[in-house]
Amino acid sequence: MEQPIAMKQTLKIAGWITVGALAGALTTVSVQTMARGAMAPLPLEELQQLAAVFSMVKSDYVEPVDDKKLITDAISGMVASLDPHSQFFDKKAFREFREGTAGRFVGVGIEISQEEGLIKVVSPIEGSPAFRAGLKSGDLITRVDDTATRGLTINEAVKRMRGEPGTRVNLTVLRRDENNRTFTVTIVREEIRTQSVRGRVVEPGYAWIRLSQFQDRTVEDFVRRVNEAYAQDPNLKGMVLDLRNDPGGLLDAAVAISAAFLPDGVTVVSTNGQLAESKFTFKAAPEFYLRRGGNDPLKRLPAAIKTVPLVVLVNEGSASASEIVAGALQDHKRAIIMGQQTFGKGSVQTVRPLGNDTGLKLTTARYYTPSGDSIQAKGIVPDVLVDESAEGNIFSALRTREADLDKHLTAGGAAQSEADKAREAAREAARKRVEEEQARVAASGGAPRRLPEFGTKDDFPLMQALNHLKGQPVVISKASPTERRDEKKAN
User: Fold this and answer.
1) Is 159 an active-site residue?
2) Could you tell me which residues are beta bridge partners of residue 362?
3) Do residues 214 and 246 make contact, with C-beta atoms less than 8 angstroms apart?
4) 320 is annotated as an active-site residue
């Protein structure tokens, strides 16, 4: 999947709601078509100034400028100045947004992230054009057609790789584990169907269920995977719910996944904003996650799912809807949360169609865990801090979090400023360590260190989660207890 989107969707005739995080990768959105209330008085003097600037640009600029482009860019700039997650959708962007919620799009079929200013392949989707072309996890994409990727945002890179079915795109790839070999592949775009849930019995008595995104089909796929695990081993002693690098998605899916494990009727998440409809509490009951009525897929789950010992794995890439699930299960003491502090996107976006296939995604509320805590720019602090590898956290400090995004919502104050400084210092120290290691590896002719694939026997956090479920010792984070207390205080 090329850059997943995190969303909370309440799909009635009214529209959608989504919850998300990561640099445009995550969003909590509610699409609504109902009429708004009475508008506030318009600032006439400022609007006259805007009209004057528009007129000057039209008459005085060095070359003619299209009216629609000027107005569209003005709207985009106005909305983008608010926070990292509000956005004006033109026709193409609105179509791609809706495709993302459905788990299908036209593209090359890779999940991507950023590394050292370049676009990194997290994994190719099995059977996709990128998979058939031989792209591998860890490949760095340096150019898309004639455009260098250094300096592009993930959203911009995604736009360039998506397109119409049957069209071609050339990707220039740097493969470091083959002596920094650079090559170009030509890929024909096609419709990609993403699979947001994986899972299996990893060893007798213990199941691993991984959610990579919250999409339209996530709940059905989750129910199927859980039932397959119980069919293979009816006496499961424990389960690991893996939300690492899950950027979020549809809110109703997050509420349903939480409800699968929680007692009926308890609070999953609440939201609060200016609008009356932004003040709402979502509970673990079908009316809060079924969009159009119908049969509740959770009724097909085995009763044991409510009591099976549960560990939830999270990291800095767990955002939005993932944080809703982790926060609900943590507050209700239904699961042990393990891993690293999460992304920290605690805001809700509402998507409203504007006509002519355009739309506005606007931050309309903050969301709160059942205990009433806002995690905006903070994240969920795990019950047990576990490093990403046996050697410690190699890359985690380099990953972008909500608090690193320009114009992110905060509670303000000196404490947040100190937290920002501490986080940037940690990122710089980690950046230097990575550069030093890469220099040593390059000098010795070896392959750069990469983290193992999630769900394998070399997956260190997964092994620690299984140890916890078995009552065996868990290797906790190498950070000292003092450092961990400081981290909780600062963030």
Assistant:
1) no
2) 350
3) yes
4) yes
Q: Which of 35-39, 418-422, 467-471 ranks highest by mean pLDDT?
A: 467-471
Q: Which of 345, 361, 387, 477 is catalytic?
A: 345
376 assigned to some structural domain: yes
Instruction: Tell me which of 242, 246, 331, 404 is the catalytic residue.
Output: 331
Residue 269 CA to residue 248 CA, distance in Å, equals 14
Gyration radius from the chain CA atoms: 23
331 is catalytic: yes
Identify the active-site residue in 86, 113, 320, 322: 320
pLDDT of residue 393: 80
Whether 188 and 209 share a structural domain: no
Residues 246-273, mean pLDDT to the nearest whole number: 94
Range of the domain at 212: 197-244+291-343+371-490
User: Does 406 fall in a domain?
Assistant: yes
- Report whether 240 contacts 201 (CB < 8 A): no
**Residue recorded with tokens 């079929």:** 109
Q: What six digits make up the tokens of 12?
A: 């009635």
Q: For the segment 372-420, what is each residue's pLDDT rounded down to a tens digit?
A: 999 888 899 999 999 999 988 876 666 667 776 767 776 433 344 565 6
The CATH number of the domain where 208 resides is what? Answer: 3.90.226
Q: d(Cα 486, Cα 396) in Å, to the nearest integer?
A: 17
